[in-house]
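User: Here's a chain of 416 residues. Predict its fold as tokens.
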Amino acid sequence: MPNRRDFLRLLPLAGSAAGVIPFAHAVAANAADLRKRGKACILLWMQGGPSQFETFSPLAGHKNGGGTKAIATSVPGMRFAEHWPAAAKVADRLAVIRSMTSKEGSHPRATYLLHTGYLPNPSVRHPTLGAIVASELAAGETGDLPPVVRIGVRRRPDSGAGLLGMRWDPYELRTATTSPANTAPQVPAERHLRRLDLMERLGSGFAGSLPQEAADHASLYRRATRMILSPTMKTFDLDAEPAAIRGDYGDGEFAAGCLLARRLVESGVSFVEVVMDGWDTHQDNFTKVPELAGQVDRPFAALVGDLERRGMLDDTLVIWMGEFGRTPQVNPRGGRDHFPRSFNAVLAGGGVAGGAIVGKTDKAGGEVADRPVTVPDLFATFCASLGIDGAKENISSGGRPIKLVDGGAAVKELFS
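Assistant: Prediction complete.
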């Protein structure tokens, strides 16, 4: 009787007898990409649109600054809003783009745009950045964990993997502080695998009329089985981290998400998104933003430092961003409204030059005055960091060629 390790090794071949595309074929097809396995990306998504003035582009002394003070950082001349003292200490590892610009001030459309690089189109389901990164780097495909993981809940859906297929859809966790639901095996591994084989045999009749659907169904179950029976499930156990490391990240759901993101990337996951909701500050902006920053600042800085200490930062791109910025003018409710004309994005690692500042706005913070960076430019920059060819084309279900990045040019100043 084979032991569990033998079954796990043979599991990728389980679908061949059922007449579906064997998982091993996908692994072989990606063999040329294995040289990139060390590359990864972590997106810290600030859902709602964070105010640039209370984060990384303060307007201290100007009436539009709202009274928010600016603090010095580890980089001479680079100043952050007062709510970000931990990020200020690692500013020499951060690159701040202060001239992001787009035309989309609607949450759903802007969220879609900042996750795919494209505007929504009813005829095409564009892949998210996570699907693009994972499918190109292929790090997770040969491992036991999902290649794309999203931690936390975003209020608005996106297209997932879109035209790239369900293999690259995100595995979603509502929280990082509890074990993933429904992942504890209910029967011994050998019996589970026999059930899986029987299910695929019973479903083989569908393969002739619906080959892709049958292949996707079988692949999903095989990958889920490999995950729940794998020793790498211990990656989700944050209690396994030394107390000192957990202390560096601090407390709270976002802190736990950042720590889990590092553990997942370390275990071979290609892309992790950690969501922090609450940035839609139409009112009480000057109360809410300090509270939100208090939950994000320390974990953000700890993640960058942790990756650097482990020798992983050069190969891991960390992105901090939301869907747009907030208005320079403070509204009567003490808030700031949607403002896509100028906003921030912050990058670290992945070969990006730390301590860099790209672009600026006018003194009132209303218009980009130097070096505008569009969303396609930003996505081209992500691709340049990770060694991905943004001009590569995939074919939609309607037969249209769709590039990974819709034009744009990488921000070369970030790699000097």
